[in-house]
């Protein structure tokens, strides 16, 4: 537990102004690594996707992955960046056990993309996030600390290193300080990363799964006295891997910084770890400045000089901006702001779009994905797209509802069958006997039974209180396991009693 003095977030903002900075690492989905031909796939057996180059063995020579350069340019263009006519890689020197070369091949003062921006909307207010640079680099390996209580190196018995991830292509997107957000600073940080992830997915250059580390954010924060126009000393909370955690990390660091400053102390420039279970951050190590890494040009790689013609060709491949697209489709679908926000928040926007394209009405598509299927995904602990149902199947289920073959309640049983792999929606309805009964003979018998069992209700209907018919309809639906045509049942009830 943290023993640091914390100041209430709202109270802190009466005396201090926060400044944000976000460094987002995007792991590209190229087939091979950044500087060698090893597979860049996720989940392989430890240390099976390595070679002399990504292990940093003497004499091994790197070569730049052209697809990674292409992805970097497309990301830069989508972020309204200038694309360098000439840039090169540098060696960032530091020792980590999961970086076998003892340096990281990266870019520093000569990035592939620079001077961009992204506009972020929070509660109807637009914040412009200036992008300082988007540069290419390689990922490190992965250390697993065994035997401790926290999974960190402190208290562990021993550590294991997997170099499969060493050399995976990364694009690091670095913002300039974001000021003026005030109490909305946590929400701005979250919205920026959410919007950036949407953009990355639209570009198709990464899976952008935060749970697998495809996309992770370092959250920089500083406080300065209100009205000073200055920037305070920053802390950097490393590798925050969910939108909610980004927001929580900002709030906590505002409270922590304010506690330090109120107590007459000085904020230490350091890296910090975010703890998902408690929502706090703890100290990692004092943060190095750029000169501490002794950057120098990488002697084994030639500069990258994308031609202007190639850059313009790549610009022509950019998809519609996700924010613009959402606004357009919201109007076409007739969604309210809240409905669209819930759809996006559930991770269902693309799935709803595909379901509508497959023939479902917009509200029906939204209903199934945002409510029924999102609940199933949460219960199963999987992403919504992995729940076991496709947009085409959702559209087919809704078509059965629209045709009167099943109702919404029965549709949920169809989804049970789809998740279990029992066939198409039509096959499941047939196999499980889920089709709605509209035969007057069967329905009439059930109606007569309900009337006999509920004489008081029947008398109210005879007296003209037709609203009481709902009770008899409910009894019939229960008798027929939800498979009665409710509209026809109502007609039969009123025919017999009105």
From TrEMBL:
Residues 350-497 form the Asn/Gln amidotransferase domain. GO terms for molecular function: ATP binding; glutaminyl-tRNA synthase (glutamine-hydrolyzing) activity; transferase activity. It comes from the Bacteria. Its EC number is 6.3.5.-. It catalyses: L-aspartyl-tRNA(Asn) + L-glutamine + ATP + H2O = L-asparaginyl-tRNA(Asn) + L-glutamate + ADP + phosphate + 2 H(+); L-glutamyl-tRNA(Gln) + L-glutamine + ATP + H2O = L-glutaminyl-tRNA(Gln) + L-glutamate + ADP + phosphate + H(+). Pfam families: GatB_N, GatB_Yqey. It is an enzyme of class 6 (ligase). SUPFAM superfamilies: GatB/YqeY motif, Glutamine synthetase/guanido kinase. One of its GO terms (biological process) is glutaminyl-tRNAGln biosynthesis via transamidation. Keywords: ATP-binding, Ligase, Nucleotide-binding, Protein biosynthesis, Transferase. Heterotrimer of A, B and C subunits. Belongs to the GatB/GatE family. GatB subfamily. Allows the formation of correctly charged Asn-tRNA(Asn) or Gln-tRNA(Gln) through the transamidation of misacylated Asp-tRNA(Asn) or Glu-tRNA(Gln) in organisms which lack either or both of asparaginyl-tRNA or glutaminyl-tRNA synthetases. The reaction takes place in the presence of glutamine and ATP through an activated phospho-Asp-tRNA(Asn) or phospho-Glu-tRNA(Gln). This is Aspartyl/glutamyl-tRNA(Asn/Gln) amidotransferase subunit B.
